[in-house]
């Protein structure tokens, strides 16, 4: 009995240009490839399932632990490449050499891989959220009420508007949950700083201790404007990594230059590997250094000390 093809499978088939031949239930000797291709058959469903079991026993025992699917796939690729170098019993060529002979009869792979995901079009809500499979995912506030394309992968949800990717989230398999990215709401909070402590997207956002110290000093010196400058510092993470912004804040705290401009300047200097040049007129709260004019006689006293 031939199984019906889904839309996703039809897209996969048209992308890689292969002919399908589904195996029949309880028919372990069905060949996965038809003889007309000229390629050697794999030996039926039983052998394919046996290779799956081999990969599980040899590549995933003990149970591996990785931080992401990308790391796991990289591990599997390394193991598969090692196995290509093996020479099985009864063969004079390695698995890789035998595969290269089969590859000569195959079509080349497309220039871009197939996007193995579900695609739906939805409208962003007034809260800058889009719903996918019973869960809500955030997008930047500037895209409110606009049509976007949601791509649901196994491990992540990617949201695009026109040709631009505007949000990426780790996919949630819970129900009725809201997945926020705090960076998506900082542009709005910059205008409404009083909501900084009550904003739901920022709840549970763990930042290094230097961020809290910077905010305390900014608000102590600038009051309401200090909160706005703190949000501006947070918005630096829209472009730069958390570690880069953290190092810049630590440098600013050490120098006593507590402002958004100073943090941004110190961060750019660290990235570009150049010494910082801070204009002290922008920091009137700091004591100005007292430098006396050097006299020629001062050098003579130095010579006397050296000679002595």
Number of strands: 7
How many strands, what sense, and barrel or not for the largest sheet? 4 strands, antiparallel
From N to C, what is the helix and strand string? HHHHEEEEEEEHHHHHH
Class of secondary structure makeup = alpha+beta
- Can you tell me the number of structural domains? 3
Describe the structure in your own words.
The chain has 308 residues and is an alpha+beta fold. The chain has three domains: 97 residues, no CATH class; 62 residues, no CATH class; 97 residues, no CATH class. It is 39% helix and 11% strand. The strands form two sheets. Strands 1-4-5-6 form a four-stranded antiparallel β-sheet, with no helix packed on it. The chain has a three-stranded mixed β-sheet with strand order 2-3-7, with no helix packed on it. The longest helix has 16 residues.
List the defining traits of the structure above.
308 residues, alpha+beta, 3 domains, 4-stranded antiparallel beta sheet, 3-stranded mixed beta sheet, 7 strands, 11% strand
Short description:
By secondary structure, this protein is of the alpha+beta class. It has 10 helices and 7 strands. The protein folds into 3 domains: 7-103, no CATH class; 118-179, no CATH class; 186-282, no CATH class.
């Amino acid at each position: 009995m031939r199984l019906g093809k889904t839309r996703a499978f039809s897209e996969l088939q048209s992308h890689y240009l292969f002919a399908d031949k589904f195996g029949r239930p309880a028919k372990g000797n069905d060949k996965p490839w038809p003889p007309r291709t000229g390629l050697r058959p794999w030996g039926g469903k039983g052998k394919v399932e046996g290779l799956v079991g081999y990969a599980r026993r040899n590549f995933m025992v003990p149970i591996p632990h990785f931080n992401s699917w990308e790391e796991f796939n990289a591990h599997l690729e390394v193991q598969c490449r090692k196995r290509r170098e093996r020479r099985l019993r009864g063969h004079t060529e390695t698995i890789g050499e035998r595969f290269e002979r089969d590859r000569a009869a195959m079509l080349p792979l497309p220039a871009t891989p197939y996007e193995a995901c579900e695609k739906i079009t939805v409208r962003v809500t007034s809260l800058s959220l889009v719903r996918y499979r019973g869960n809500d995912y955030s997008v930047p506030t500037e895209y409110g009420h606009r049509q976007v394309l949601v791509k649901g992968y196994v491990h992540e949800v990617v949201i695009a508007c026109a040709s631009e990717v505007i949000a990426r989230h780790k996919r949630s398999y819970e129900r009725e949950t809201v997945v926020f990215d705090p960076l998506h709401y900082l542009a709005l909070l910059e205008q409404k700083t009083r909501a900084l402590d009550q904003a739901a997207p920022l709840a549970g956002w763990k930042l290094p201790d230097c961020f809290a110290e910077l905010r305390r000093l900014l608000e102590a010196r600038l009051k309401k404007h200090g909160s706005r400058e703190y949000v501006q510092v947070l918005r630096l993470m829209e472009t730069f990594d958390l570690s880069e912004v953290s190092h810049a804040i630590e440098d600013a705290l050490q120098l006593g230059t507590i402002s958004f401009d100073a943090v941004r300047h110190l961060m750019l200097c660290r990235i570009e590997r150049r010494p910082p040049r801070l204009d002290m007129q922008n920091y009137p709260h700091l004591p100005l250094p007292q430098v006396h004019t050097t006299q020629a006689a001062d050098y003579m006293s130095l010579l006397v000390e050296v000679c002595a």
